[in-house]
Design goal:
The protein has 778 residues and is an alpha/beta fold. It is 42% helix and 9% strand. The chain has 5 domains: 29 residues; 180 residues, no CATH class; 128 residues, no CATH class; 234 residues, no CATH class; 141 residues, no CATH class. It is globular.
Length: 778
């Protein structure tokens, strides 16, 4: 009997195994084995159809969710290479992995579709026999679009629990062989996910394209005039000699995320600064390292400008204008200075991850001026780079604060330079340990380094300011009288963030004043040294180390206040806080020297904000001046706290005026905290009754969570009046039904197109497509 039972079980196993094999090979039986296809064609052979008819649909209906590192299933539809690469079940953002993942960056980590298949990516296009029938029925993309077309989508309704819009939702990422089962289990899972279906015309355009083999064309090559500028800049960045090569390395490590353009020729053609094995004049051969300062393993690195061919996305767009004036500025900062580079530094991790050692030959003032010239761009790297995604990554900063900078003439004196040289080992950053870190042992080491550096910095500052140095507003950089990068505002939106020029909005709870060493460390911590594919230890130590740097920036600001008020104000910032190691280390860095700024009231912080604004008045950027909002909408700044609590973080408002044009406004909710010293218990530190909102002209944020449309002044009046009466979720939803563009609105895509059209007018060269992954379902 046991033997018969065993034979029976084996028979069942073989039968089921056979079924599995048949299931896996079903499409192979129908259409033959998978084999990557050559999709790129010339403009006349099908590229024109793709660029003129298909790409606009993909951009405006698909790329708004499928772009960048956080695209669901890593499906990037913003370029032919991303479409051909397809899907991956592996997560880029994974805060639990014990070992670092191999990176999967388009163009860098594989160069052919076959290589991507070897890395586990599965196609969304048919890669079997190329017939019209197979190209549709063997395509995940087509089946996903068809699933949405076949299943009714509710209009103006709140979608049910079967739709998961959470940032870290489980992703299925089915291959073609898995799609039938997926569709049966998830009839609501068609694309666009949780948004209305494509129009019949749009669907027909994509169907025809897919049916005919999904051929694609690249966007036009740069014009002759633009290419001449590329050639000129590549020559500038690749001059012979140690001094130019070290300068180019420094420039690259700060600009590699930028979308570079030549303002006098084209504001729509962008380039990425990359490292190449080949010199100017030859095809670029990318050096694909995890970090921009990793060992290139070549004798000579060449810095090249690679044409950016992907669709521009707001969430990753960092535009940088180059012209002759910028080249002259770089020459004076790096090549014309009176210093020598006797030997080029190597790329050993502990050296390359420490810019104070690597670039010690370049004067501090040159490095700092370079960063200040494009301060918004550098800070945007903290915000728009891979690090800044999700609540855990962002709960290290407050929701709204201002940023100013120490004047480079004050920050580059001999004593400060000597301090940096003496303590360059204490300025070592976590990237020195690469992407696999043991967080506790590393934390203790970096805490000791930070403590030693802060002690020396504070002692030097006290010595300077107690012996003739002036601790006053002259320490604040005035933008050389013309540069609006001197004043910035950072907004956190819970799981995303934004930086803009100017001191925007109401006086915030906190502010930072950045000196060179602090500014540089934040860049090498959050941008150059961060690996989004790193293990949990790397990600945790990055987050914890940023505590030190935030506190240091805050205390630079506090030191401008009267000595008698500094600790009291800091205590208010960190109410109900158990003394963290970060605070313990930083608590002695408040200066003993008295501020020489004259204060008249018992509210010196408010006075200091006004004085800083007055000092920087000639360069304060006014694009986002919240005083310029029309009076009726400005009333939203005074919403009752019950209404504030119902708001999402980022709300876009489109208001149509009597002339038929549209004005854009952003309504930001700022979450208040008793303190931000807790890594995992943010909700326990929330001061809900202190939340407030700011209405700002234009668009602030890359991830709209709510969209409101007000077609005339009467609707503006009714909207503001109605919002003041919102007290709970029910009343918020009722108002949304009147004026909101829900994700289930039947004309959602029409309003989406209008939103982007208005954004193009407002943002100009800074325009990029918004991301809809955080749209609310309310």
């Amino acid at each position: 009997m046991p033997q018969k039972r065993f034979i029976w079980l084996v028979s069942i196993f073989i039968f089921l195994s056979g079924c599995a094999v048949l299931g896996v090979s079903h499409y192979d039986d129908l259409f033959g084995p998978e084999q990557p296809q050559e999709r790129l064609v010339s403009y006349t052979q099908g590229g024109a159809k793709y660029l003129q008819q298909v790409k606009p649909v993909l951009d405006n209906r698909c790329v708004v969710c499928h772009g960048c590192y956080d695209a669901p299933c890593q499906l990037k539809l913003s370029s032919p290479q991303g479409i051909d690469r397809g899907l991956s079940k592996a997560l880029v953002y994974d805060g639990t992995r014990l070992l670092a993942e191999s990176p999967t960056r388009l163009l860098f980590d594989a160069t052919t579709t076959s290589q991507w298949r070897g890395k586990g990516f599965t196609p969304v296009l048919n890669e079997r026999v190329q017939t019209e029938y197979a190209n549709l029925h063997g395509s995940v993309m087509y089946q996903s679009l068809l699933l949405k077309q076949r299943n009714s989508f509710p209009e103006q309704a709140i979608l049910g629990k079967e739709f998961d819009f959470s940032l870290d939702r489980t992703q299925s990422c089915p291959s073609m062989d898995e799609y039938d089962a997926y569709a049966k289990a998830n009839p609501h899972g068609g694309m666009p996910y949780g948004l209305p279906a494509l129009t019949n015309h749009e669907f027909a355009q994509l169907q025809s394209w897919l049916e005919q083999g999904a051929h694609m064309g690249e966007i036009a090559a740069p014009s002759k005039e633009v290419q001449q500028q590329v050639d000129k800049w590549e020559q500038f960045l690749n001059q012979a000699g140690n001094k130019p090569q070290l300068a180019a390395r420094y420039i690259y490590e700060h600009w590699y995320l930028a979308n570079i353009y030549f303002v006098q020729y084209s504001q729509e053609t962008f380039f990425k600064l990359v490292r190449s094995k080949t010199p100017p004049g030859q095809p670029i051969e990318l050096i694909a390292t995890v970090r921009p300062f990793d060992d290139p393993k070549v004798t000579r690195v060449y810095y090249r400008l690679m044409h950016e061919r992907s669709t521009i996305l707001s969430k990753t767009h960092l535009p940088l204008a180059l012209d002759d004036r910028k080249m002259s500025r770089l020459y004076s900062q790096f090549l014309g200075g009176d210093y020598e580079v006797n030997e080029l530094p190597g790329y050993a991790p502990k050296l390359a991850a420490n810019p104070f050692k690597t670039f010690a030959a370049i004067p501090v003032k040159s490095r700092y001026q370079f960063m200040l010239d494009e301060a918004e761009l550098i800070v945007k790297g903290f915000i728009k780079g891979p690090v800044c995604r999700g609540q855990i990554a962002l709960n290290v900063i407050n929701d709204h604060f201002w940023v100013a900078f120490v004047d480079p003439d004050k920050n580059a004196n001999p004593a400060v330079e000597a301090l940096l040289l003496e303590h360059d080992d204490d300025l070592l950053l976590p990237a020195a340990e690469q992407s696999n870190v043991l967080p506790l042992s590393s934390w203790a080491k970096y805490a000791k380094h930070q403590s030693d550096y802060l002690k020396a910095k504070t002692e030097l500052s006290d010595q300077i300011f107690n012996h003739g140095g002036k601790l006053d507003l002259d320490l604040i950089w005035q933008g050389d009288g013309h540069n609006p990068n001197a004043a910035l505002t950072i907004f956190r939106h819970f799981n995303s963030a934004t930086v803009v020029k100017g001191f925007v909005g109401q006086q915030p709870k906190t502010a930072w004043v950045l000196d060179y060493a602090l500014f540089e460390r934040i860049h090498y911590l959050l941008v150059a040294g961060f690996d989004v594919y790193g293990n949990i230890g790397h990600q945790l130590i990055t987050r914890l180390y940023m505590d030190f740097l935030r506190l240091e920036g805050e205390q630079n600001y506090l030191n401008l206040l009267p000595k008698s008020h500094r600790q009291e104000i800091k205590n208010y910032w960190y109410r109900q806080s158990h003394l963290s190691l970060s605070e313990f280390i930083n608590r002695k860095s408040l200066l003993g020297a008295e501020s020489l700024i004259e204060y008249q009231t018992n509210d010196p912080q408010s006075e200091l904000y006004l004085k800083m604004s007055e000092r920087l008045s000639d360069v304060l950027h006014q694009e986002y001046d919240y005083h310029a909002v029309p009076e009726r909408l400005k009333q939203l700044n005074r919403l009752p706290i019950a209404a504030v609590k119902t708001l999402p973080q980022v709300t876009f408002i489109l208001a149509r005026n009597e002339h038929g044009s549209h004005q854009a406004y952003t309504l930001l909710r700022h979450n208040a905290h008793f303190n931000i010293s807790s890594l995992l218990n943010e909700s326990g530190q929330r001061a809900y009754e202190e939340d407030y909102v700011t209405v700002i002209p234009g668009f602030v944020g890359d991830y709209p969570e709510a969209i409101w449309y007000l077609p005339n002044q009467a609707h503006v009046e009714a909207f503001t009046t109605g919002f003041a009466q919102v007290v709970d979720e029910t009343s918020y939803r009722a108002l949304k039904a009147q004026f909101g563009i829900r994700r289930t609105h039947p004309q959602f895509w029409q309003y989406s197109d209008l939103l982007h059209d208005v954004a193009r007018r407002y943002r100009g060269v800074e325009f990029g497509l918004f991301d809809y992954n955080r749209l609310e379902n309310r």
